[in-house]
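your task:
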Amino acid sequence: MRSVCALAVLFALVAGLGPFLAPHDPVAINIPGRLAPPSGDHLLGTDAFGRDILSRLLHGARWSLGLAFVISVIGLCIGTLIGLIAALGGKVADWAVMRSTDTFLAFPELVAAIVIAGLMGAGTWSLIFALSVTGWMRYARVAWGIGLSLATRGYVVQARLAGLSPWAIARWHYLPSLLPSLTVVWTGMFARAILGISALGFLGFGVQPPAPEWGSMLLDARIHMRSTPLQMIWPGLAVVVCVLAINLAGDALRDALAEREKAL
């Protein structure tokens, strides 16, 4: 678990410090040096415009990981709120909210995000909106399920009889019980957000050039995939390793929480 968490922390540091670690300007064009292989000056080579791939990867981590963090946090807040409304609002609110959630879950998230981004137009804000709107349902179901299980607990019943409002009960009694499970869900959704950002970037709906983002780097490199495959391998490898590290960290966190519950 320590090695996995260390790898996840490493990616977070790269996202934060990447621009300071980059050896070159990620948007500086150098046509004479285009499609150069790895060398001492360009450790991972250059792309079709002569831009240093390593520098673009380091700068791109801020876009890919930073946007994924924002999107997953927005989904966490929206989904938790909706789940608590369903759990605390009575049978009518329960039925209406959860049937709406099931309807959203019936559509593939990435396909729905592509449709929304296509309707809104390419850009960072449409990317954030599309992935946020399609990424809250799992949080809602977890919050709803745990909320229903807590409704019959003695301390919740006593708080209700004491006259506390539903939102006060949610704040002081529901949220502390929800946070561990929601944190585990959040790690998985964080990884899914990275994949979604890369997919929309590859399709041209994400962060627009010349900003370096891993998905858009894959888009730029696809033309030269046969002649210089390393252009696609490096950003693709960054996405795979990052998503794998986050998922493994989430699994380790889930196992640790399960062991803690058994000990209690």
Remarks:
- Residues 72 and 190 are 5 Å apart (CA to CA).
- Residues 2-10+52-263 form a domain with the MetI-like fold fold (CATH 1.10.3720.10).
- The chain has one domain: 2-10+52-263.
- The first helix runs from residue 2 to 21.
